[in-house]
Amino acid sequence: MTEKEITEEIRERIKKIKEEFEEEIKKSKSEEDIKRAKSKFLGKKGLIQELFKIIPQIKEEEKRKEIGKLINDLKEYIEEKTKYESESQILILKDEEIPDITLPGRRGFLGSLHPITITLQKIILIFEKMGFEVEHGPEIEDDWHNFTALNIPPDHPARDMQDTFYLEDGRLLRTHTSPVQIRAMLKRKGILPVKIIAPGRVFRRDFDATHSPVFHQVEGLFVDRKVKMSELFGTLDFFFKKFFGEKTKVRFRPSYFPFTEPSAEVDVSCLCEGRDKNCKVCKGSGFLEVAGCGMVHPEVFKSVGYENVQGFAFGMGVERLAMIKFGIKDIRLLFGENFSAFKKRFL
Ligand code: PHE
Fold first, then answer.
1. Residue 268: is its pLDDT beyond 90?
2. Which of the listed residues 35, 69, 97 is the one where a domain comes to its end?
3. 32: Cβ contacts below 8 Å, ≥ 6 apart
4. Given CB 3.0 to 4.6 Å as the disulfide criterion, which of 104, 152, 203, 243 pairs with 147?
5. What pLDDT does residue 346 have?
6. Which of 176, 227, 290, 312 most suits a substitution to test ligand 1, by most atoms within 8 Å of the C-beta?
7. pTM for this prediction
8. What pLDDT does residue 192 have?
């Protein structure tokens, strides 16, 4: 055989072996089949090694290099193919296992915002339009910020183990957002006006149809040289009308908080407008309590070193507002795991 005939024949063999390999892979039904094919072609006595043995018969160096490269390419190709197949372990499915890709996909569920989130967003938006800045404080507080600085004396019942969650190191989970009043004033170092709201989670040892151990409040604080109680009433009246609707009546009742003087409780008119004596929401009274407020107590200003200033503060319960707005009777529905049932009824 001439040199030319030899190289032609080798070329032909390389082509055949490649075809044989493709055939083999197509037939493979398992990982085992692939391993077997791999050793048939790449093993020590495999077909590729047989091909390499022919190379020395080619005298011409150029031709030898060319054929050597062809065999190497085929070897790499087979290595690549069998490596991929065995590493990714998906692959060879039996006919009945092949998924029907023409089936329609599963419908995804649309998410929606939690009623507490919606309520918080509405509250914040209204106060921001009135020029209030949003402040945040820590949920783990110390006794001074949560009580002492707010003129709550050591023997005050609010400090009772019954009401407050204490940590082992003496710190506590804040029982209201009022400590953010203290933090906001300290942070501003007397620069006026201080005009903030502080939304956030608060914690109390309480659990029934209208109380949850974790709930949300929005605190408000306005401090300037001269602040009148009518400004407090005007601000809250405006807010609740924007939040519940212009027809809403807002009522202030005298009350007591250690950190405000004078203090008031804020009621808004119920949807039933007092006409339904059996109304389950307001129990026939026509009004619902939604916030506490008052003029900042001089002792509070003293604890943060503010002099010659006046201010008002308020704190509202977000769950309360959400329950009224969405007509929810039991606060636990807002936190329960059966949220989709809740959504069907209320959203
Ligand atoms: N911190 C009070 C509470 O949790 C609410 C409040 C805030 C009252 C600010 C007056 C002024 O009940």
1. yes
2. 97
3. none
4. 152
5. 53
6. 176
7. 0.68
8. 95
Q: Kindly report, residue by residue over 50-62, the tens digit of the pLDDT.
A: 888 888 888 888 8
Residue whose CA lies nearest to ligand 1 atom number 2: 315
Least confident window among 178-187, 210-219, 236-245: 210-219
Atom of ligand 1 nearest to the CA of 217: 4
Average pLDDT, the chain: 88
Domain boundary pick from 97, 125, 159: 97
- Residue 62 or 223, more confident: 223
Report if residue 106 sits inside a domain. Answer: no
Give ligand 1 pocket residues (Cβ under 6 A).
176, 178, 219, 257, 260, 292-294, 313-315
Tracing tokens 């503060």 back to the chain, one arrives at 313
Same domain? For 267 and 328 the reply is yes
Q: Which long-range contacts (CB under 8 A, 24 or more apart) does 2-10 make?
A: 3/58, 3/59, 3/60, 3/63, 6/54, 6/57, 6/58, 7/58, 7/63, 7/66, 7/67, 10/51, 10/54, 10/58, 10/67, 10/70
Residue nearest to atom 5 of ligand 1 (CA): 315
For residue 257, report the distance from its CA to the centre of ligand 1, in Å: 7
Residue 107 lies in a domain: no
pLDDT at 340: 59
CA Rg value for the chain: 39
